[in-house]
Amino acid sequence: MMILKRMKTAVKLFSEDFKDRSNHKDASLINIGFVADKQLSELKVRKKVSEQDVLIVRKETKEFLVTALTKLLEKCPLKYTLVRNLAWLDPQKIKEKPSLCEKQLRLCLQIISSAGKVRENKCDTILNQFRDFAVICKTSEEASEWPTGAHSRLDTFFHAQLAKEHAFKDLWEIVQKVLLLSHGQASVERGFSVNKNITVTNMKERTLIAQRVIVDHLHHVGGVTNVGMTKELLQSAGCARQRYHAYLYEENKKREHTQQTKKRQVLQDEVDQMKMKRSKLQTNINALLTSADELAIEAEASDKISVLAKSNALRKAAKDKE
Question: CA 59, CA 57: separation in Å to the nearest integer?
């Protein structure tokens, strides 16, 4: 109890060393739960466990609790200064303690601007807009009724108060960014599990998307029995066969176009290959003729029959290639 009395703020909570044994209760006083306590008592009566075994269980329970608490504190968002100062989003606090909320907003802006998420020259404008909004909150019925009023969600409350007001444009922008901090990717990861449950062999992308849309809608409305049988839905279901045939027709056209494109590509590749071979052949012929001319000039200058024979052989080879 003494350690709990010392933890009056989040900062003190995170500064406390929970592994310090001076802060721990005696292992024999650890509450291991009603069922576990009962089973240990029964085992002791039947002499299947000793007092030392019971003490070991309680010690291990204490170690588990300390480890779990330490891990929770490591993951706890309250260790971040930004999160600890988000109380300025509370409409009740804005109404009752506007100065404190403004101070907390200033700290948040310092952190957000240092991260490059908002320009520093906008911070004063945001603070001025917040002061004006705090004045409105003092007389606002929505702020007084929150969170039991029509806008019980914080995002819907601020959207109703700020989104359509140009005078609070910059304040609304920072509110959106701050509210997005708590959004993780758990919903996306849950979607992977849904995909795994609804996929079958050889399922195409369009089918998977359609089934996911259906599953998401069923979750949204709360079950199959809550799906509204509207006129549009019935008409869409009635035209399903026509859309299917239209889809097959389009797929056939795409397939034919792809095949024709492939054939043209094959012919074009053959033409390009022939042109390349012809170019290489012409290059070889030119090289042979050039060498033959050089040998002929050399034979004329040296009166060597062997050189002239080589020249004639090269000319013959060039002629054969033609």
Answer: 5
Provide block-wise average pLDDT over 10 residues at a time, the chain (322 residues).
Answer: 63 72 77 85 86 86 86 82 88 89 93 90 93 88 69 81 89 90 69 74 82 85 87 88 91 92 90 87 80 74 69 70 66
User: Which tokens belong to 37?
Assistant: 């306590």
Q: Which two tokens stand for residue 241?
A: 């066969």
Q: HSE-up of 17 (CA within 13 Å, CB side)?
A: 4
Question: Which domain does 167 fall in, by range?
Answer: 81-182
Same domain, 132 and 171: yes
The gap from C-alpha 63 to its chain's centroid, in whole angstroms, comes to 36
Residue type, 201: T
CB-based contacts of 25, cutoff 8 Å, min separation 6: 62
Instruction: Tell me the C-alpha to C-alpha distance, in Å, between residue 42 and each of 23, 36, 54, 250.
Output: 31, 10, 11, 74
| Residue 25: alpha-carbon gap to chain centroid | 43
The answer to whether position 236 is within a domain reads: no
- For residues 213 and 159, state if they share a domain: no
Output phi, psi for 253, to 5 deg: -65, -40
* Residue corresponding to tokens 């000039």: 297
pTM for this one? 0.50
Contact (CB, 8 A) for 62 and 27:
yes
User: Does the bond joining 147 to the residue before it have cis omega, within 30 degrees of 0?
Assistant: yes
Residues in the chain: 322
Helix or strand (DSSP H, E) at 256? helix 240-302
Residues 316 and 254 in one domain: yes
Residue identified by tokens 């019935």 is 234
